Amino acid sequence: xxxxxxxxxxxxxxxxGIIANDDITLQLRKGEIHxxxxxxxxxxxxxxxxxxxxxxxxxxxxxxxGKVVRINNPNDANSLGIGMVHQHFxxxxxxxxxxxxMLGVEPNKMGFLQKKIAREKVINLSKKYGLHVDPxxxxxxxxxxxxxxxxxxxxxYRENEILIFDEPTAVLTPQEIDELMEIMRGFAKEGKxxxxxxxxxxEIMSVADRCTVLRKGKCIGTVEIKDTTKxxxxxxxxxxxxxxxxxxxxxxxxxxxxxxxxxxxxxxxSKKNAVNDISFDVRAGEIVCLAxxxxxxxxxxxxxxxxxxxxxxxxITLCGTDISKASIRKRSKIxxxxxxxxxxxxxxxxxxxxEENMVLxxxxxxxxxxxxxxxxxEVRKYAEKLIHQYDVRSGQGPITITxxxxxxxxxKAIIAREIDKEHKLLVAVQPTRGLDVGAIExxxxxxxASRDAGEAVLLVSLELDEVMDVSDRILVMYEGEIVGELDxxxxxxxxxxxxxxxxxxxxxxxNRYAE
Length: 515
Known about the structure:
- By secondary structure, the protein is α/β, with parallel strands linked by helices.
- Helices cover about 35% and strands about 25% of the residues.
- It has 3 domains: about 5-240, P-loop containing nucleotide triphosphate hydrolases (Rossmann fold, 3-Layer(aba) Sandwich), CATH 3.40.50; about 245-335 and about 425-515, P-loop containing nucleotide triphosphate hydrolases (Rossmann fold, 3-Layer(aba) Sandwich), CATH 3.40.50; about 345-420, no CATH class.
- It contains 18 helices and 24 strands.
- It has a 6-stranded mixed sheet with strand order 6-9-10-3-11-12, with helices on both faces.
- The protein is globular, with a radius of gyration of 23 Å.
């Protein structure tokens, strides 16, 4: 009989209108990296939340080293050596990085906080594992990628032996992902046991020992990675064959839809500009991708473009109209759709229903209101159409509170709303973050369809495969500037990486529009 450090036996978890986990058994060996794979809505995070004490299962039991344990809350989990890096960050935004990491396990002497001890431990951990952070930075002022590092350091700080990573690479750059994979291998060699939720099959094939696949709340099976393939895993996950390439014809760019001229945006964390004197155009019928390592000004540029931040200088024109100082609603009315980087902060009102979120950009239109009163039947009919078209899964359909949905299905709801809304420009920031391979395939087709319908698409992505496969033109950002303009058909991932790291740059200001 094999010894397991953690066993989740016949776990069943229910929510209103849905059986989330249906009689699932998952067994984790000591010192292994065990991947948990499933489509969006397969409730992988729910299963891990049961193990971490955030939810209580209706049926089943959890064992550690063969003994039944009761995990009523995360404190119980931590006392058993179980830590979790959450997909949606559990951070206090007005606290510093250091305060968040030590929150709940503050070192003290005779009741006095020993902050210096905590600082030294955090700095040492960040150096050891390559997760460099500023301990004094305020959470709300740092990038999503940096916030992810804080979540990982929180777990390392507590010295847990069973580590749950819930989509930890979703907001990391390719280089950071490689580093994290090495860190995970190091953890396993140290004897730590890892449960690793991801949608990225390449990551599973490169780092995991075994993989358990969930589909629609049920366990499809557990396989040894050395005995399987990406194609087999994707088939187990979605129940059909998946195409890993993007099928698209040559682009036919038309008139300029978006134009940025000498745009600069201030930095929140330093006196330097986060975006410095950037100029480029995006034309109808093309997909232009902004590529770069996270933290090189992409977030600030998109915030200025979409109206979330003010320009320091420069001009932004959309469909011939100067929108440099326009409100967000005006930009939307002129023809801008925006899939934001942070779906919780800028994409959804989490305590609204799914149907209410589906019409956030359009509720004032005659289709959805009359004399100031919302046409609830029209809203529901419209929401049901998008739910079906984009396969948005939720326990109670259009009346589901959005907060209760999985991250991937929240993302699909935003994408459905923004693509379906009449627009001339689609600004898509990390549109496939947290989506399974089937959903990614579908979203890539939607982006190409938008392009082929004569719309302009500005894609911001950290995924090199997505950058190379989907875009017609690549603009590389480094330290707030455009340092390269590349044709994906004529460049390589290696060359793209050199531009992203700042090791290579074009004289793009002179050559940008040269035919």
